[in-house]
Input
Amino acid sequence: MKTPVTFTLNGSEAAAFADPGQNLLDLLRRGLGDLSPKYGCGQGTCGTCTVLIDGEPHLSCLVLAEAAQDRRIETAGGLADGPDLHPLQTAFVEGFAAQCGYCTPGMLLAAKALLDRNPTPTRDEVIEAISGNLCRCTGYEPIIEAILTASRAPNRAPNRAPGRTNGRAG
Amino acid sequence: MAMEFRKDLFADERDDNLNEIGRPHIRQDILGHVTGRSPFYDDHLFDGLLHMRCVRSPHHHARVRSVDSTAAERMPGVVRVIRPSDIPVNMNTLLALLNFGRDDEPLLTPEKVAYKGEPILAILATTERAARDAVAQVTVDWEELPHVLDVEEALSPDAPMVNATYPNNTFDYHDRYDHQKLRFGNVEAGFADADHIVEGEYQMSPIEQAPMETCGAIAAPETNDRFVCYTSTQALFFSVAVAAKQTALPSSRLHFIGGTVGGGFGGKVDSHHEPLAILGALLTGRPVKYQWDRAEEMQVGAPRGAERWRIKDGVMRDGRIVAREFTGFFDAGAYTRLSSYAVQKCTGHIPGPYTIPNIASNVYCVFTNRTPSTAMRGFGITGVDFAIECHMDKVAEQAGVDPIELRILNAYRDGDMKAHRRAAKNCALIESCQVVADKAGWALGAEARAASSLREGGIGWRAEIPETVIDRAGEIGERKQTGLAPEPFAGAARRETVPAGTASEHPATGAVPQREDMVIEAERLGFKVATGTPGPTAPPPVPPATPPGVPVPYPNTGSGTSARTAPSPGPSLPAAMRSTSAPPSQPSGASAQPDRPGPAAPPAVEPPAPAGDQAQAGARPPRRPGVSRFISGPRGRR
Output
């Protein structure tokens, strides 16, 4: 039997029917068409499916879809404001902090949860914050550097999407 | 330092301004990555999508007595069961596209599984959960068979046959040879002259590529009678061709979309998902997704193969390596995939970046009941390099030489002749070692500090191709002993080239992998060679005279020319092979070789000598001085 679920997705009201046992990852992707959270393991070990629930990072493959009822869900697809990238996105772009890009949405959300809570994290705090997110390509250094760069961005106000920039990140 | 670019082919296509290191660049695809919009294969939504899951073997090696899927077919949501008989062309090998190897692997296995996790049945259902539940309802009557998980155990004559296409548990190169062989100079003479002999054995485990995105594909019927296939493949054209072959559809009806890969590292070339997904779409008329979960990615996904290496070095007191011998075993797992090629690649890499005048190697591509192995980041090179560099440290320790200086002393210099009869160019190991020593604060001796890749290379022996040690038959190394080929293939051989994608029932594929006398492909070598074995009257090879003015080859073998032309047993045969049958019967009088210089050949290298080939053997063209007869291809004959 399907269960109706309503919640806020990236600031907008969202509603879908959840199958019994369906997880939030599947509901977001197939039910609501938000493809930014990725399936990596289905076991809560890799972090590619990370979403923010009421501002806290959660592994959407381990969250039952019904549990999202009345919650505030944020995904990487909602980070940018139109053409304006979030400072984290800008720092990732300029700092070459992605290679295949599969872990990137989860990394960004884990980093956003950190910066929203702690705007000036230390390097160790950054490492701790992304310790649940695996990356197999770039190594973690550019990612850590990009998060630190974003934390130092002036006012951390959304920036314009970068064109070919001369700025050196990290 | 002036830099030389290889620009003869694309001179007009690229400028030489490559000073990009340390300058920031923005990837062209990164905006998609940070916004979550990069279209990975699974990011395509289809109404009515079916999910495919496979029934897999819980055993390393087992026969399928019977499969009962009636209960599974009655499960809610189940749409279709795909059996091996539903697959138009069930057998394939990845490199069939290159006419390399026999079709040895089914997409779904009908009778005998050879590794844990091998798929025998596929189930299509409306949800992934329904497909999983249905898979659990399939009952299979397994007859467990003895398995072999070790490469050297797999070479023993009583080892279970892993893969019926290759009954000796070795890949058959050119349908004749059970290993890849490299010979350069005379390692036995080098060992005899060396001050130290350093031996070591090195073992590398399989390594899973572990991409963040698991392997998969989605296929769907298109309106124009084609099938669209979104895939995670790293090798789109491999996948198109494999899918076209196994589904028996013309590739013009296959519309493949890939290119956005969530991490590959070699693990996404095997092209198993695409044909099954397309077949599912073909059989049901609906979109089908076949996606591995993480457990499958780890258990079934083909890793970098394990390798075992034995290395024996002859080392002079000053650290100069004068002879190096390899015996290598490459664990292909149950099926070939790309391991056959990996063995060729690592043979081509031997002996590492060092100028060594005497080299021999035998490398085996061995089938075991482990997960088939495939490509991964430098596969074929990484494992043997690990062994070589571990061994270099061991040599340094045993010879009492600084490990970095040892590498600098032995490194290729520009112009040095490599074991593959090509001159080394653009060498940089010495300079790399010097920079590493600087960065690590490691003190180097004055000689190592002053060394350069641009000097001292290509002079005298360093530029020469030594006479390759051959035996009376004009061949190199030892023979494989008979007695390893189990029924039903033993002796049922016809000898011919096997066309691409040949199914295993082709009569030629039943060949005994290697003839005892290991006849060389004469046309490739560019000279006429006896089809059999020359008799005792065959003249011994004449060593080339050292041209005047050229420094004496280093090392001076001391044992004279006879040592250079004596037959070399090369690397030892695996113990299992050594312990098998007696050597082939000796022709009468063969052991008495009055005109044969040097030590008598060990029995293992004595081929049978059928009569009647003397005339042909005697008619061989004279040897080019200093050039091996074993250079193959047109480059060797210019």
Remarks:
- Residues 157-170 of chain A have pLDDT under 50 and may be disordered.
- Chain A touches chain B through 49 residues (CB under 8 Å).
- Helices of chain A lie at 24-31, 87-94, 104-117, 123-129, 141-151.
- DSSP finds five helices and five strands in chain A.
